[in-house]
Amino acid sequence: MSKSQEWDSAKSAFKNSEKNATTITKAKDGNKYSFAVASDAFKQGVSGNLMNDDWKVDGAVALEEKPVKKEWKGKATVSIVSPVLAEKMRLWVNVSTTYNYKPSRTQFLISSF
């Protein structure tokens, strides 16, 4: 459990909050799986080696969902290392993309009826 306190200048008072979190991780067949539950969010992810021949490719996918706010975030990452191309020269490529979904106020009002 974690506790935090922040100052709310509009109310001239401190705002306290507590969060409980549980994380489960498992490794199987060279992949890492994770699942986390907090008081306001769910997180899940998987990462591992996609290719281990001449080209080395690692990948990861993560998803976070906040059901109360109806928000979610997804992230995918790929890391690529080439074999030796010409006298100790290699190529490293890291690619990552993230998508954040946050409904607008009107979407939230319409979907709550």
Features:
mainly beta; 113 residues; elongated; N-terminal domain of TfIIb
Strand content: over 45%
Taking all Cα atoms into account, the compactness measure Rg is 21 Å
**Mind summarizing the main beta sheet?**
6 strands, antiparallel
Instruction: List SSEs in N-to-C order.
Output: EEEEEEEEH
- How many β-strands, per DSSP? 8
What CATH architecture label of the domain at 47-111 applies? Answer: Single Sheet
Q: So what's the CATH class of the domain at 47-111?
A: Mainly Beta
Task: Compute the separation of the termini in Å.
Answer: 34 Å
Structural class: mainly beta
Helix content: under 10%
Spans where pLDDT lies below 50 across 5 or more residues: none
Number of helices: 1
CATH topology of the domain at 47-111, by name, is: N-terminal domain of TfIIb
The geometry reads as elongated
Word description of this protein:
A hairpin with a 4-residue loop joins strand 6 (56-66) and strand 7 (71-81). The chain is elongated. The longest helix is centred in the last third of the chain and has 7 residues, at 105-111. The chain has 113 residues and is mainly beta. It contains one helix and eight strands. The relative contact order is 0.12. It is 6% helix and 65% strand. The two termini are 34 Å apart. The protein has a domain at 47-111: N-terminal domain of TfIIb. It has one helix at 105-111, and strands spanning 2-8, 13-19, 21-28, 31-38, 42-52, 56-66, 71-81, 92-101.
